[in-house]
Design goal:
The chain contains eleven helices and nine strands. It has 268 residues and is α/β, with parallel strands linked by helices. The termini are far apart. InterPro entries: SAM-dependent_MTases_sf. It comes from Streptomyces ruber.
Length: 268
């Protein structure tokens, strides 16, 4: 799959599905002027843009996709349209060590990791190390927000994501989807030396204009990469389309109610 097209599908179709979560977290933590936010795994920058619209100074880090970084910069830095760039919006493609050397306001007063964990084997282990590296960039007691999928019985999309597990069985360690566990977020927080300090659940339905849009959006998440590697793109498209038909409404749209959970932890 073309990586530029995939990043664009993420930005235009899938990323907005978590907007209710971003809004709930920002409202609870009173994000606004004076907030210095560090977004880990910032994707194509939608959550950063929402925080910036509240007056926050935002910094994003994305290491998995240079194409997503380019889209985030396009959203956040107005020089892409020939105007002056915001001095308080930055997006980095690379290691967290780069932030300590870059000019900007620190320590950060809020750290977010909005990429949901608990659905891909090994995702929580990688996040723990990232959070441990980010903690020194924040002040003592700074809130750190972690996000995970809710219980499978509360996430209709789980039935569709199981397609990824079924097709990836020849490659069980390749990062295929798995059901969320109750203590995923707390386990990550403890491993990173963070202190849990509250949590919440937010309804984030996945809604798409039609089945082809749903296929493109879900493939952009990376959750089906192992399935594509184990079979091929055509087979994944076929079985994903079949699974989505169960959630297709009479007008052709696709609707899958889901619940996501967030944990607020504090730096030591």
């Amino acid at each position: 799959m073309d990586q530029c097209a995939r990043a664009r599908d993420w930005a235009e179709i899938q990323e907005r599905m978590l907007v209710p979560l971003y809004e709930a977290v920002y409202e609870r933590l009173e994000v606004g002027p004076g907030t210095r936010l560090l977004g880990l795994g910032c994707g194509s920058g939608l959550a950063l843009l929402m925080a910036a619209s509240r007056g926050a100074a935002v910094t994003g880090v994305e290491t998995s996709s240079p194409e997503r970084v380019a889209l985030a910069r396009e959203r956040l830095l107005p020089e892409a349209w020939g105007t002056r760039a915001r001095a308080d919006a930055r997006v980095f493609d690379g290691a967290l060590a780069n932030l300590a050397e870059a000019p900007g306001e620190m320590p950060y007063t809020l750290v977010t990791a909005f990429e949901p964990i608990g659905c891909v084997a090994g995702d929580s282990e990688g996040l723990g190390g990232l959070l441990a590296a980010a903690a020194p960039l924040a002040g003592r007691g700074t809130p750190v927000v972690l996000v995970g999928w809710g219980p499978p019985e509360r996430c209709v999309a789980s039935s569709v994501l199981r397609v990824a597990t079924k097709l990836a069985e020849p490659l069980p360690s390749a990062g295929s989807w798995r059901p969320a566990l109750r203590d995923d977020l707390e386990d990550v927080a403890h491993r990173a030396g963070l202190r849990p300090d509250g949590s919440g659940r937010v309804a984030c339905p996945f809604g798409y204009a039609d089945v082809p849009s749903a296929v493109r959006g879900l493939l952009s998440t990376g959750l089906f990469d192992a399935a594509v590697a184990a079979t091929d793109r055509a087979q994944v498209d076929k079985e994903l389309t079949e699974a989505l038909h169960a959630h297709e409404r009479s007008d052709g749209t696709v609707w899958m109610p889901n619940v996501f959970r967030y944990l607020i932890a504090r730096t030591p």
